[in-house]
Amino acid sequence: MRALAFATTSLLALASASTLAHAGESNEVGYLGFARAMRAGSADAITGDMLAGVSLEYGRALDLGVGDRIQIWLDAQADFGTASGTMFGTMDTKLASATLLGGVRVRYLPLSLVAVGIRVDVGAHHESLDLDAGSTALSDGAWGAAAMAAASLDVYAYRSKRFAIGLRFEVAYTKTQAVELTMHRDGGDDGTIKLPVMDTSFGHLDTSGPSFVGGLIGQF
């Protein structure tokens, strides 16, 4: 968490020390879909599916005078995804994941309607796991640190000094801190008192993996 706090402080210092661009295309919003292949054994134990969902992005360009074709952006991103499966052939599983990230993106425009970029983000993630065996339901959730590195290709359908719209395709790798889950039984509404001895340790859940992202971006 010290690394996360240091990275966040560094980004704020960069933003305050730099002049934000006032021309058109200094803001960017994105609505994209993503699919992450979770490679860890703990994730494979609960689902064979990819973690899939929606990625919401916002970026702000910095006017650092690095050239007409090179752009540097501060970006923020929120990913919300789910995956489901079965354990032991009888227990249904559902994973809900939220990842909140912020960082820096560097973009290069070889053509007026094409841009390539790289970015590095740090932040936090929350994993929520539900297990349902029919007569017994268990659940838990936890927060951990997260980091992402990505390479992107932007293809614009229209681009002017005031407005641009296009598609973004991105390959990324997300590293998440493994979170420890203790599954709590759902006592329902029958007045049953849940005791600590009824809890079951799941161990650590790691949702790290490579992902593909694609969707719509707009700049103004």
Looking at the structure, what is the overall shape? elongated
Q: Structural class of the secondary structure composition?
A: mainly beta
C-alpha termini separation: 34 Å
Gyration radius over CA? 21 Å
Strand content bin = over 45%
| Helix content percent band | under 10%
Q: What is the chains' assembly state?
A: single chain
Query: Roughly what is the average pLDDT, rounded to an integer?
Result: 87
Main sheet overview: 8 strands, antiparallel, barrel
Unreliably modeled segments: 1-23
Q: Work out the number of β strands.
A: 11
Provide a descriptive summary of the structure in words:
The protein is mainly beta. The chain has a domain at about 20-120 and about 150-175 and about 205-220: Beta Barrel (Lipocalin), CATH 2.40.128. Helices cover about 10% and strands about 65% of the residues. It is built from 2 helices and 11 strands. The chain has helices at about 1-15, 40-45; strands at about 20, 25-35, 50-65, 70-85, 90-110, 115-130, 135-160, 165-175, 180-185, 200-205, 210-220. An 8-stranded antiparallel barrel has the order 2-3-4-5-6-7-8-11. A hairpin with a 4-residue loop joins strand 6 (about 115-130) and strand 7 (about 135-160). The longest helix is centred in the first third of the chain and has 16 residues, at about 1-15. It starts with a helix and ends with a strand. Residues about 1-25 have low confidence and may be disordered.
